[in-house]
Amino acid sequence: MAQRIQPVWSRRKFLGMSAMGAVGLTACGGGPPAPPPVDVQVPQEILDAAASYRGGSVGMLSQKLYSDAANAALDRSLQAFAQATGTTVQNDLVSGDAGDMVAKMDAEVKAGTARDLAFMNDERFVGQLQNLGDLTDLTDVVEEMKALYGEPATEASNFCVFDGRWYAIPYHFIAAGMFLRKDWYTEKGIPLKPTYTWEELRDNALAVSDAAQRRFGWGITINRSGDANGFIESVINAYGGAIADNTGQKVVFNSPETVEAVSFIGDIYTNPKYEPMLPPGIEAWTDTGNNENYLAGIIGLTNNQYSIYADSKTKGNPVYENTHPFNGAIGPATDIPIAFGSSNSFVVFKGAKNPDLAKQVAKFMVSGSALLGVAKEAPCLVNPSWDKVWDSDPYYTSGDPAYAAIREQTRTPIPLTTKTGYSFPQPPSPGEQAAVAAYLLTDMMQAVIQGTPAAQAVATTHDRIVQIFEQQGYRQ
């Protein structure tokens, strides 16, 4: 059996993380007053469609958004629907980064105790739930919505469709993003560009670092977190490696390209040359660590959803004006970033007590004031998934300079192919989704930091990924 790699944190790094996190949490106090909540209206066609369900109820799970105000706005939209239709909607938040979300949902479906619907990241979770037989076919709903709203984001056709059938309804689009401090770059005469190589980002981060000013150029962790998973996999893909082949069923992780990528990442965190650009505690950050430290003005580069951008704008943080967002980095095997985003998408569970009412809730939430209220509380983090919804309100066309680029990302022609022949996004792979969710990539990097050679760490992780694929029914 493959050895399980455990992360080890030094006391200095752990205490550093705690101190830096505390600074980040308080750095954005004050700011502009919150905008008034959007007046959520339920369209007549939804009222008519839901009329026969008056008195009914649905239970819903929402993948927690990285904005408390957006979570509150989402609940306001749901309760506006409930009040207008005479129904009850019970909404509970669930963390997508806990590592056991799919297992818990599957257990509830099998026990007959699942909620009626949920929304979650389609790239990370929908394939696993569909492979477990937990989801209802929603093709009829999606086709109806296409007639109203045009096409959804291109990525959805990859992550929500299985054997030509839709098992998830795209809700709102989540752009892939990286963010750097353009004022720090400008001070050093480093040009701002639409993309960089990973090596350029590393070298630039070192150049802009100045511990005396509490400036640390690199703000990407490799500790267990969704952001770390995304970073590690992005570098591996950019170098020409992949977890699985283009079928999504065969593990191909142990390759020279993967070893080269892992060596590159490991060098950042172990080479004394780069220590000046690493903030104390970075190896112990979770998904909030980079947000807190970026908003506190301490780090100069990170990868993230647009939650950092949204928080800095809504709270009047000066880092908003000094932020250069870009789609991602390239490597030896790529000419453009492998960036196509994802969507939070609605699913209806098998055995749902009120599936038809659940579908009406989903149809209501994807557009109009129901979505606008959430989007305004999380600008550029919550975006339309559907083409015509982008044109439905001036906010989406002129509310922020980043919206034009985000909308273009929803239209990214896919697949994007590396020089080694891998195409992304690959078909939804329950094996890959489960392997990433189990934090095998971050465990691998912790082993490298502790002294395991990159080739050995990659080989061990390959064996662990194989085990998970076989557990999902894919013989290797």
Radius of gyration: 22 Å
Roughly how many Å apart are the termini? 15 Å
Helical content (DSSP H or I, runs of 4+): 40-55%
CATH class assignment of the largest domain? Alpha Beta
**CATH H-level superfamily of the largest domain:** Periplasmic binding protein-like II
- Taken from the alpha-carbon principal axes, the silhouette is globular
Largest sheet: 6 strands, mixed
Strand count: 15
What is the residue-mean pLDDT, rounded to a whole number?
A: 90
Overall number of structural domains: 2
Which secondary-structure class do the elements indicate? Answer: alpha+beta
Which percent range describes the beta-strand content?
5-15%
Determine the CATH topology of the largest domain: D-Maltodextrin-Binding Protein, domain 2
CATH architecture of the largest domain: 3-Layer(aba) Sandwich
Our count of helices gives 21
3D architecture notes:
The chain has two domains: 11-30 and 177-339 and 438-471, 3-Layer(aba) Sandwich (D-Maltodextrin-Binding Protein, domain 2); 44-175 and 341-410, Periplasmic binding protein-like II (D-Maltodextrin-Binding Protein, domain 2, 3-Layer(aba) Sandwich), CATH 3.40.190.10. 45% of the residues lie in helices and 12% in strands. The two termini are 15 Å apart. With 476 residues, it is an alpha+beta fold. The chain contains 21 helices and 15 strands. Helix 3 runs antiparallel to helix 15 (368-377). A hairpin with a 5-residue loop joins strand 14 and strand 15. Mean pLDDT is 90; it is low at 1-31. The strands form five sheets. Strands 2-1-3-12-6-13 form a six-stranded mixed β-sheet, with helices on both faces.
